[in-house]
Amino acid sequence: MSNTKRLKLWRSFSEGGRNFRRNGLLSVATVLLQGIALFLFSFALVVSLTTSRYFDHLKSQLPLIVSIKEDTPDATIQEMKATLERAKEVKSVEYVNQDENLKRFLEKNKGEKIIEDAVKTFEENPLFGTLNITAYDPADYDTMVSALRSATFASYIERINYESEGSKRSFSEMEGTIRTVERVSFILGIVFACIAFLITYNALRLTIYSQHQEFEIKRLVGASNLYVKMPLYAEAILYALGASILAFILLIIAILALGGTKPAPFLEGGSLWMFFLVRSWSYFGFIFLVAAIISMLSSSLAVRKYLKI
Amino acid sequence: MATKMTPQNVPVLYFENVTKVYDDSNIVLNDIDLVIEQGEFVSLVGPSGAGKSTLIKMIYAEETPTNGRVFFMGRDVNEIPRKHLPFYRRNIGAIFQDFKLLPQKTVFENVAYALEVDGKSGAEIAEEVPEVLDLVGLIDKATHFPHALSGGEQQRVAIARALIHRPKLIVADEPTGNLDPYATAEIMQLLLEINKYHTTVLLATHNKGIVDRIGKRVIALENGSLVHDQEKSKYFLSDR
Predict the structure, then answer these.
(1) CB contact under 8 A, B117 and A214
(2) Is A225 within 8 Å of chain B by CB?
(3) Minimal Cα–Cα distance from B121 to chain A, Å?
(4) What is the tally of structural domains in chain B?
(5) Which of A8, B8, B58, B123 is the most buried (most CB within 10 A)?
(6) CATH 3.30.70.3040 at A60-172, yes or no
(7) Tell me, what's the pLDDT at B4?
(8) Is residue B194 in some structural domain?
(9) Is the pTM of this model over 0.90?
(10) How do residues B18-33 score in pLDDT, each as one tens digit?
C-alpha cells in the first residue's frame, strides 16, 4: 500500500473516531444495544456448546454392552475383544465375566431386597459375561452394532443392549434434546444478530442525515466517493469494537454468575470458566468478527441507501 | 474553433450547443454556445430561473447536457469516468453564497481538507495552507471555527479552500449574496486579485453594482438562452 493510501486510510479512521465521539450519547446507546445483542448471541452459542458437550459426555457413560453366550471359549472372547479394540471408532473395550457382572449388579442394587431375593431364586448366575464397549462418538453406536451383527463372531453374541427399545429411546431422546438446543440457539443467534444489524444501520443513518451538508462539501472539494464513505465504515468498526468488548465482559459476568467455576468434568479444564478462559482470545476474536461483519454489512447498506454522492 | 489548440490557448470552458431539458419538458438551457478563455473574468448574469446554476453545475459535472457538450481545458466533461470525477473537480475552485464550510473544523482544517483528499502529507499541508490563508488575509484566524467569523471572513476561507489546488477556474455562485457592502467589496477585490494571476473567474451574480463596477465581460442568460455576451460590458437588462 502506498504512503498516500496509508495516509488517507489513517485520516478516514481518525475522522470515523471523531464522528464516534461527536455523536456522544448516540454512540453510547448504539454500543450498549449492539453489545447486549452480541452478548445474547454469544451466550446462546456458549449454552449450545456446553449442552452438546454435556450430552456427549452422558452418552459416553452409556457403553455398548455386548452379552456373550455362556459356552463361548475364553480364547474366542479375547479374540473378539482384540478385534473390537482395533476398530477406529472404539475408545475402549472391557471384558467382564459372569461372576464379576453379578457382583457389580448386586453392588449397584445393594439394599434393594426384592432384587436380592430374586437373584437368590436362581440356581445359576442369570447374567452373561459382557464386552463393555465405549466409543469415541456415541453417534457411531448404530454402525458398530451393525458391524458386530455381521462379524465372524456374531454367533457368540447373545444380545446387545443398544438394540433394546429402552436404550434406543434413551439415546434418541438425548439426541433430540441436543438438536433442539442447537436449533433454538441458532435461531436466537440469528435474531440477535439481526437486532445488532438494525441498531448499527440506524446509527449510521442518523450520522449520514446529520452530516449531509458535510458530505456535499467534501464532494465539492474533490473527495472521492470512497474517501467520503470510509469514515462511516470506520465509525461502524468502532461500534463493533465497543460492542464486542461489552459483550465479552457481560459473557464473563454471566459465566461466573451462573456457576461457571463449579466442576464440569465433561469440559476441558474441568469447569466452564476454565474452558472459557483457555479460549478467551478466540471467543473475543469470534465475537468481534461477527460484530465487524454485521457492522460492515449494515453500514454498506445505509451508505448505499442514504448517502447521495 | 479554427486555431490549433495548445495548452496555452485552449479555452478553459467551451459550451458547444448545450441544451438541458428536464423530464417535464422544462427547457433550462437552450442551445448555449460560449467560450471562456484562460485568464478571463466573466460575469454571468440573469434573473432567477435563467439557467445560471444549471450552467455552473454542468461545469463540475453535477448535471449533464441533454444535447451538446461541455469542454474543460479541451476535455469533454461528460466523458470523464465517474470514478475520476473527484480528481477532475480539484481543477475547479467553487465558492457559494452559503460558504459551505465544515462547521466542526477550524479555518486551517477547512482549507487543509482540500489537500487531505489529495493525499498530501502533514508537512505539505503545513506549508501550503498558511500561504493561501495569508493571501486571503486570514492567517491570524487559522485556529478559529467558522461560527466565530464574519460572513466576509467565512467567504474568504471558502476562497482560500478554492485556491489551494491552484485551480484553472474559480466558479463563484453568488458569493456576495449574504454579505454587507463592505464585505462584498473585499470579496470582489480578492477575486479580481486572483484573476490577475491568470486564474479564470466565472462569477454568477444578481448584483448589478458589482458587474458595472468590474467592467469586464458579461454573459447574460434569459429563459435558458444566451441573450448577451460582450467584453467590457455593464449588467445586461433586457427590454421586458
Answers:
(1) no
(2) yes
(3) 7
(4) 1
(5) B58
(6) yes
(7) 46
(8) yes
(9) no
(10) 999 988 788 899 999 9
pLDDT digits 0-9 by tens, A215-270:
888 888 888 888 888 888 898 899 999 999 999 999 999 999 988 888 887 887 88
Q: CB of B18 within 8 A of CB of B70?
A: yes
CB contact under 8 A, A7 and B119: yes
ipTM value of the model? Answer: 0.77
| Total CB pairs under 8 A between chain A and B | 50
Residue range(s) of every CATH 3.30.70.3040 domain in chain A: 60-172
Q: Is residue B21 part of a domain?
A: yes
Indicate if the pLDDT at residue A62 is higher than 80. no
The pLDDT value recorded for residue A246 is: 95
Task: For residue A7, list chain B residues with Cβ-Cβ distance below 8 A.
Answer: 119, 121
Is B193 among the domain residues?
A: yes
| CATH number, position B179 | 3.40.50.300
**B1 within domain boundaries:** no
Site from B102, B111, B125, B164 to mutate, A interface, most A CB atoms within 10 angstroms: B102
How many angstroms separate the CA atoms of B220 and B52, rounded?
9
Find residues 3-42 of chain A whose CB sits inside 8 Å of chain B. Answer: 3-5, 7-8, 11, 18, 22
Taking the CA atoms of chain B, what radius of gyration do you get in angstroms?
18
Polymer length in residues for chain B: 240
Judged by average pLDDT, the poorest of A264-273, B55-64, B142-151 is A264-273
Domain that holds residue B91: 13-230
